[in-house]
Design a protein that fits this description.
The complex is a heterodimer of chains A (393) and B (302).
Chain A (H helix, E strand, L loop, with lengths): L2 H4 L8 E10 L2 E11 L4 E5 L6 H9 L6 E6 L2 E2 L5 H4 L1 E4 L11 H11 L4 H14 L15 H13 L5 E5 L7 H18 L2 E6 L2 H7 L2 E6 L2 E7 H6 L4 H7 L2 E12 L2 E5 L5 E5 L10 E7 L4 E4 L12 E11 L3 E8 L4 E7 H6 L7 E5 L6 E2 L5 H15 L1
Parallel strand pairs in A: 3-8, 3-9, 6-7, 7-8
Antiparallel strand pairs in A: 1-2, 1-4, 4-5, 9-10, 11-12, 11-14, 12-13, 14-20, 15-19, 16-17, 16-19, 17-18
Chain B lengths: L2 H48 L3 E2 L4 E2 L5 H8 L1 H35 L3 H12 L6 H6 L1 H5 L4 H8 L14 H25 L3 H9 L4 H12 L1 H16 L3 H6 L7 H10 L3 H25 L2 H6 L1
Antiparallel strand pairs in B: 1-2
Chain lengths: 393, 302
């Protein structure tokens, strides 16, 4: 390999964002944010638009500088360094391919800037194009390619300098559904093959969970949860993450009593739930939040005129929408208090005794499937438990 | 109606529908065609016809002779006039291109906020609220022997003698041209630059390109439509000018058109017409040359 491409390997691809705040005039895009992305991992920054995820990406890339705080790559501070010295490469949302240059010249551009001769840089670019199965299109202009092909050109162009960190800004948002699903698998494969760090910004929950080792859920310039993709899905930390990532219903209520690590909680509407609370002993009357996975809920039709059984861990409502998703049916239930409650019922269970829109149903689940969320006074309690544990050491 | 009949009727209807569409578009361009034919095509035709006429001291005599053209091509002064006009065109083109590109670049890439951008852009057009002549003539008291500029230089002790080359010289002509025509370069370049996706610049920087590299590799090629259009404006304006040359050079320099005007003043219409025809051909060739380099239509459709 040439000297220009060799430099990427120096230092690891660990990305550290340390206490970074970014202000644009009056607005604060990122607030006191700290995050460590391990070398060689695939990290997704997930959040709604305006949550600061793209700003973080751009600060890692060097297209923005943090107002305060530090960004380190491979242990070395890169604030103020030009893009070339960071060992990063960025793939832009709209791909940002140079419209007046051939696909080959687009891919070879970074080498041209580094002063590598035409035959050498074209050879390298051709190799990369072959990797993304586009060698046939080398002499076309970007506008003559389809969206998916353009995206692969953008990927090849970003990879030509052998970066240690690849930054992807909503890389799949411009593709249609079919290509999006294919490309996200492809991105994951490329990342595994190269073993470099990928930081991928997206607002699509399933995309993040599908590709990432590590998912960082953000809101309003802060991190709500940074954890493995699986944990983000099955063990959201708070109601925001549970609601945003989806796959969960959020339950809330005030504590009536606590026994053997289970709190009995009553919702505003009088439904009663059991929450596993572990070490914490929430005060009577404290408000607790819990989550229950959509696919851990059983739905049963109530006979007309029947009274709800009113047992623990049930809730009653009317079927609002039904969506057949193939392997399961998504049942949205309008609760009496106007909230929505979603159950994913396996297809065979559902079609044994199908429901109809407008049916009165009772949803039930097991208390052990409920996860306590870090909201309300429990956040302080949890902090106190941690503090106690720490002082006991 | 059965579905087959229905389909058949659709087939019958389709071609006329297309015809009316075509007719409608012809109707739409008709006013423009009429205006151009009446005010451009017809006069050009007259000029062309007259260029083959004979003339005496007082009359133009219908004929079909090539004397006017032969005269034009054999006179040594013709070459000098064209050389002078082309020299001015090239100098002014180079300066306005440099200025126009930089002003447009500043407006598009350095000015943040659309409102501020539009505000500054409008500021560029403010001089156009006064007439060309006034704008040009106001250079005379500024650049004159005892003008503001010379007085300021002498007052500041930079020179002891007034600078003579400032007014009634080629320098003054170029200054006036640049002043009058830079905006014609700024507007089209601004227009095509504004359509460059900003992320392309970031992508170039990401690839390691410095500022100048980015300008030369990305911004310049993507602004070429604007540059071509601006060049056409500036070059045709300078080539077709007589007034600025005459006024600002104090009669020392001449252009093709000012010579042509002299002939008109002397009622020598046929040679003036021949001169005009050649001028139109040469300028058309220059424009065609620019359009050959840059496919403006394709770029505009982009």
């Amino acid at each position: 390999m040439t000297q220009a491409t060799g430099s990427g390997a120096i230092g690891g691809g660990q990305v550290e964002v340390a206490g970074v705040t970014k202000r644009f005039g009056e607005t604060v895009a990122v607030k006191e944010l700290s995050l460590t992305i391990p070398h060689g991992s695939y990290c997704c920054l997930l959040g709604p638009s305006g949550c600061g995820k793209t700003t973080i990406l751009r600060m890692i890339a060097g297209h923005e500088n943090p107002t305060t705080g530090d960004v380190r790559i491979g242990g070395r501070s890169v604030v103020g360094l030009p893009q070339v010295e960071r060992g990063t490469a960025m793939m832009f949302q709209s791909y940002a391919l140079f419209p007046h240059r051939s696909v080959l010249d687009n891919v070879a551009f970074a080498l041209k800037v580094r002063g590598i001769g035409l035959p050498a840089r074209h050879n390298q670019a051709r190799e990369l194009l072959a990797k993304v199965q586009l060698e046939k299109f080398a002499n076309r202009l970007p506008a003559e390619l389809s969206g998916g092909q353009q995206q692969r050109v953008a990927l090849a162009r970003a990879l030509i300098t052998n970066p240690r960190v690849l930054l992807l800004d909503e890389p799949l948002s411009a593709l249609d559904e079919y290509l999006r699903l294919r490309m996200r698998g492809e991105l994951r494969r490329v990342q595994k093959e190269l073993g470099i760090t990928f930081v991928h910004v997206t607002h699509t929950q399933l995309e993040a969970i599908a590709v990432a080792d590590m998912v960082v859920v953000m809101a309003q310039g802060r991190i709500e949860q940074a954890a493995s993709a699986r944990d983000i899905f099955v063990a959201p930390r708070n109601a925001y993450v549970a609601r945003f990532v989806g796959g969960q219903n959020v339950l809330s209520g005030t504590v009536e009593s606590t026994m053997n690590g289970m709190a009995a909680v009553a919702s505003d509407k009088g439904a009663r739930f059991a929450f596993p609370v572990g070490e914490i002993r929430p005060a009577r009357g404290a408000k607790l939040y819990g989550s229950i996975r959509r696919d851990r809920i059983g739905v049963e039709k109530m006979l007309p005129g029947a009274k709800p059984a009113g047992g623990l861990n049930t809730t009653v409502g009317e079927v609002h929408t039904l969506e057949n998703q193939g392997s399961y049916v998504k049942v949205t239930i309008d609760l009496d208090n106007g909230e929505e409650f979603v159950a994913h019922v396996p297809d065979d269970t559902f079609f044994r005794n199908p429901l109809d829109i407008g049916d009165k149903v009772e949803a039930r689940w097991s208390a052990s499937d409920v996860k306590l969320l870090d909201d309300g006074p429990i956040a302080f309690e949890a902090a106190a438990v941690e503090a106690r544990a720490a002082s006991a050491d | 109606m059965t579905s087959i009949e229905h389909a058949a009727s659709l087939l019958e209807e389709a071609p006329p529908a297309e015809n009316t569409g075509e007719r409608a578009s012809w109707l739409q361009v008709a006013p423009m065609v009429a205006v151009l034919a009446l005010f451009f095509g017809l006069p050009m035709l007259v000029v062309l016809v007259v260029s083959f006429f004979d003339f005496s001291r007082t009359d133009i005599i219908p004929a079909f002779i090539f004397d006017n053209y032969v005269d034009l091509f054999t006179r040594e002064v013709t070459l000098r006039l064209y050389a002078s006009s082309i020299k001015f065109a090239l100098i002014v083109w180079a300066i306005t291109l440099l200025l126009g590109f930089n002003i447009a670049y500043f407006l598009v890439f350095h000015v943040r906020g659309l409102l501020f951008q539009i505000g500054l852009f409008l500021l560029c057009t403010v001089p156009f609220l006064t007439s060309n002549i006034i704008r040009m003539i106001s250079w005379i008291p500024f650049l004159g022997r005892n003008g503001i500029f010379n007085q300021a230089l002498q007052g500041a002790g930079v020179t002891s003698q007034p600078l003579e080359f400032l007014l009634f010289s080629d320098f003054a002509v170029v200054v006036a041209y640049v002043h009058l025509f830079t905006l014609f370069m700024v507007v089209p370049i601004f227009n095509s630059m504004a359509r460059i996706d900003k992320s392309l610049l970031e992508a170039a920087r990401d690839a390691g390109a410095g500022r100048f590299r980015t300008v030369f590799e990305i911004v310049l090629p993507l602004s070429r439509t604007g540059i071509a259009l601006g060049s056409i404006f500036v070059i045709t304006l300078v080539m077709g000018d007589s007034f600025v040359v005459r006024t600002m050079s104090g009669g020392q320099s001449a252009s093709v058109v000012s010579a042509l005007q002299n002939e008109v003043a002397a009622l020598q219409y046929p040679p003036a017409a021949a001169s005009a025809v050649i001028m139109v051909i040469i300028v058309t060739l220059m424009v065609a040359g620019i359009l050959r380099l840059v496919d403006v239509r394709k770029e505009l459709a982009r």
